[in-house]
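Q: Two folds, back to back.
A: First:
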Amino acid sequence: KKKKKKKKKKKKKKTSRGGKMTTDEQSYKDKKVISIGIVSELTGLSVRQIRYYEERKLIYPQRSSRGTRKYSFADVERLMDIANKREDGVQTAEILKDMRKKEQALSNDP
C-alpha cells in the first residue's frame, strides 16, 4: 500500500493594507535580472535612451561578469517615471534633483 503525499498549498502573500509591500514582494522588484532589450520593450524607450539615463545617473543597472547591464522591475518603473517627466518637458538635471530629494526624505524618515 502506497502512502499518498499531501501537497502543501503555498499561500500567496498579498499586499498589506495601505499599499505597503511585504519583503518577498520587494525582493523580486529589486532583483537585477532584466536585460536592456527587454527593458526597452517594456518601457518603449530606445536602448540609447536607457543608456543615456544611466550616464546622467538617473538609473543604476548592475553589470554581469561579462559587462551586460541588468535591470530590476523597480528600475523599469523608475524609467517609466523618467520618460513621463521627459514628455512633460522636465530636464534630466531637474529629475535627478527631485529623485535625490525623495531619497533624502526617505532616508531621514524613522
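A: Second:
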Amino acid sequence: MLWPETRQISVAIGLVNCVMYLELAAGYIYAGNVFQCEVSRITISLGVLIFVQILVNLLLTIGAMRKAPSFLLPWLGVQSGNLGVSMVCLVVVIFGGKIHLGLSSSDYYVATLLPLSSFILL
C-alpha cells in the first residue's frame, strides 16, 4: 500500500519524466531534420526507446493514482536497464579515452566528468 506522499511523488516523477521524454523526442525531430531524409535505424531505435519510456512512466503514474504498486515493476525494470546501459557507455568513454574515440580534450572532460559527478552526487 502506497502512502499519500509517496503516491504524489510517484505521480510527479512519472509526469515529469513523460514531459522530459516528449521534449527530447521533439528536440531530436526538430534538430535532426528527421523528415527531410530517409529514416535511419538510429531514429527508429530512439523512437522505440522513447515510446517505451513514455509508456512505463504513464504506467507509473496510473499505478500511483490507482494505488496499484504492481505497475511500478515495469518502470523499475526499464530504469535499471537504462542505468546499466549508461554505465557501459561511461566505461567505454573512460577507457576508450580521447585517442580511440577521437574526442577533443573538452569533449572528453565533459563526457567523463559530468556523468561521474552526477553519479557521485546521487
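Q: And?
A: The chain is about 85% helix and 0% strand.
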